[in-house]
Amino acid sequence: MASQHLSIRLPQETIDRLDRLSNQSDGTRSETARTFIEEGLRMMDHPGIVFRPGPTGRRAGLARGPDVWEIVSAIHVLTGHVDDPVAVLADQIRLSAYEIQLALTYYEAFTDEVDQRIALNHAALAGLEAAWMREQRFIQQ
């Protein structure tokens, strides 16, 4: 996607905070500002969705619940096995069907991003499982 230049004036305190965050994430000031602007716009379009940091990067989640990728993964598991996967999941994790639907609406808008997050987390889990198996073999020797 082509990008365009945007020049804005910000208070020095905001610039200082932006620089601190950029340094912590090994990113540039522009990359950090772009991330927060994009996330802010997405939160305006999808009320109830927030962004949080994690071991595999920033990700979308429900303000009072799990990450969007976790909800989508659970819905994929339930689909075809229960009549109303949204209602079943809402009951299981004690959220409203509306909140589950918020996550699914976000997923519809950003499918590739959420699918990539699911893949990253599955890969991380596979790596942890492999490490545990190696450890178990070592312990049993």
Could you explain how this protein is built, in words?
By secondary structure, this protein is mainly alpha-helical. The protein folds into two domains: 9-45; 48-139, no CATH class. The chain has helices spanning 12-24, 29-45, 68-78, 85-93, 97-109, 111-139; strands at 49-52, 59-62. A hairpin with a 6-residue loop joins strand 1 and strand 2. The protein is flat and about 55 Å long.
Unreliable spans are: none
Helix share of residues?
Answer: 55-70%
Structural class: mainly alpha
Q: Could you report the average pLDDT, rounded to the nearest whole number?
A: 93
Helical run tally: 6
SSE succession? HHEEHHHH
Radius of gyration: 19 Å
Quantity of strands, as a count: 2
Terminal residue distance:
54 Å
Largest sheet: 2 strands, antiparallel
Assembly type: single chain
Strand order of the largest sheet: 1-2
- Net shape: flat
How many structural domains does the protein architecture include?
2
Tell me the strand percentage band.
5-15%
List the topology elements.
Elements: H1 12-24, H2 29-45, E1 49-52, E2 59-62, H3 68-78, H4 85-93, H5 97-109, H6 111-139
Antiparallel strand pairs: 1-2
Helix pairs in contact: 1-2, 3-4, 3-5, 3-6, 4-5, 5-6
Keywords for this entry:
two-stranded antiparallel ribbon, 6% strand, 6 helices, mainly alpha, 141 residues, single chain, 2 domains
